[in-house]
Forkhead box protein M1 (Prolemur simus), 783 residues
Amino acid sequence: MRTSPRRPLILKRRRLPLPVQNASGETSEEEPKRVPAQQEPSQAQASKEVAELNSCKFPAGIKIINHPTMPNTQVVAIPNNANIQSIITALTAKGKESGSSGPNKFILISCGGAPTHPPGLQPPAQTSNDVKKTEVITETLGPKPATRDMNLPRPPGTVLGQRRESCAGSEAASCTLDNSLTNIQWLGKMSSDGLGSCGIKQEMEEKENCHLEQRPVKVEEASGASMSWQDSVSERPPYSYMAMIQFAINSTERKRMTLKDIYTWIEDHFPYFKHIAKPGWKNSIRHNLSLHDMFVRETSANGKVSFWTIHPSANRYLTLDQVFKQQQKRPNPELRRNVTIKTELPLGSRRKMKPLLPRVSSYLVPIQFPVNQSLVLQPSVKVPLPLAASLMSSELARHSKRVRIAPKVSVLGFSLKRDSGRLEMLDLQLPKHSANKFECLLVLLADEGVAALPTAGPVKEEKLLLGEGLSPLLPVQSIKEEEIQPGEETLHLVRPIKVESPPLEEWPSLSPSFKEESSHSWEDSSHSPTPKSKKSYSRIKSPAQCVSEMLVIKRRERREMSRSRRKQHLRPPCLDEPELLFSEGPNTSQWATEFPFLADSSEPAAQLGYSQAEEGPFKTPIKDMLPISSTPSKSVLPRTPESWKLTPPAKVGGLDFSPVRTPHSAFGPLPDSLGLMDLSTTPLKSVPLFDSPRELLNSEPFDLPSDPFGSSCPTDIEVPKAGPPEPQAPSLSANRSLTEGLVLDTMNDSLSKILLDISFPGLEEDPLGPDGINWSQFIPELR
DNA sequence: CTATGTAAACAAC
DNA sequence: GTTGTTTACATAG
């Protein structure tokens, strides 16, 4: 019941969330969300069948089939022993067959089987389908250059985002930089067109262009594997708001985004919110931003713009793309459930609120792939295609924002990663206008010696950048020096796709300051009218205050906690005791020395520092300076282990959008850890008191690397970052997804995309392709 | 009980 | 009107 006058009177909502016949039964307000036509066929079967039916066989046992779920995508099954020539031949044939408008994505997988051709299948029909698909995409995407560009599947590491932001000029740069394959896949799974329309946020464009409904699509049906377009739009994405916010923010180069941009990003990537969801979803977004400590609001230098960022210690750098891939690889029950629910329950019975986020039980920690050294190979100069030549520049251009991307210029990037002979994924975007995109592909293959595919050797990653005038290797580093920290750039280039989750050890979460912060709620403590920095992880409140507060709070926390959710503070699980070492905390510089990664300027993680002179962004002052006790907050609860239960990050089966949790073990490396720990157990008294967080801030110089994304650009750049500029980037790079290959992308909107996924058999690897599909299901040879 | 979603009151711009 | 913060309640697991 509501006691407080302030409390909104909550009317009984959803009194009857019961399975009702009609969707309408859910809520009167429920808009006609559910399009009654969402019959979902059982995908697996359907897709399989279709795939088989549509597969085409080529010499050497090479098979080309439609991707079961991805539109415009074909899977090329290449027998182990097939030689490059055969591949080329097959692709060439296919290319001719399809013409320039054919499918624009190809996933190459190697099948262990020799050319023992399984029953060849009839290609004809399928081919036409493909063509059609391509056309659809082409049509939709083609017209909107900018938009399209955005939507192109792009590996996370791509620099696009950055560029965007910078281009935008304003910090608000809405960067839709999405990177992702996901984009297309998720939306695309419904129909790639969706993306086309929603890609970007040039708002104007957006408004006009995004009439998804109008899209002439229906491509999916061909494969029978994907949901209908309508479904895709009407179907709520399986991600929680928190997750989506993370995706949005992480999609930007600077890992920050304005509220508005977050809205836009979500709308663009999840049409559901744009077309179906009730306007209240935005409220929910705001609610989430405010609620979760992991989201930190930063104010621009001029104080006019506020950006939402993800606290580095909590940021897993998850992107939609990454998550999507993970999901595909190991479809977890939850996700599947969504689908299932949809199919199985009567529309009306679907619960209004379905779990969007995998629960803790299914947390997934980004898979740590073997650390491979990336090799930048000499661009194959041989690539004769004019195409190749033209391809190069755009990438560069993108990196250095000054370079204007010529309409026809595109970049070709090519990367091969051979991990124990396992797979590679090439993501190529070729100029659509090229005579035959296959040529490009073939050239690449040949050039790269793909024939050697089955190379099973030491783990090795090679990356090839092809460029015309470029010096053979675009020095990775030199590519874009301007706005991005070296580390990042390199990362992008070298690893177009970056696994966004660095090893836990790398997270600064354990830093004393953070611990302290996370363990306490400085908010409540400030009895002073001073504007407090809302959730400043690193900003602070006096420890003493925290302590006292905690004490007070503790008594009621339990009781009230359950009832009200205050800020969900980040809190290292390992800390049982609120350690207030904070005030005395080691300064960053020290950390930097000892833990370079903490000092990484390129890393978003470096943000803590803004507390220093500039006190950084502050949250809107909280009006209720009431005694903390007034509202017990979970976050304040120092020893509520529950709040930060260690969810074994080890799990790899699900998705975890929750903030990074640091395992106890992670502490190990910290030299001071022991001391800190001890202190933590020590009563806070030892810590100096401050009347306000601000005071604390002023008195305590925290040398943490300042926020790379500082509200003000200048600041960001200038902030001296202690330590090597590589901290996180390197580590990130170290963990690379095998599935990520290279991306060629182009700013040119008239590009087609070819996505190659080359798998090398012989690995203990499961048959799952990088996209998580079990190809053996479709391709017997793979078994 | 927790995590999440939704609604709403309010405050500051 | 937008952005943020909070509180309250609902739901699913």
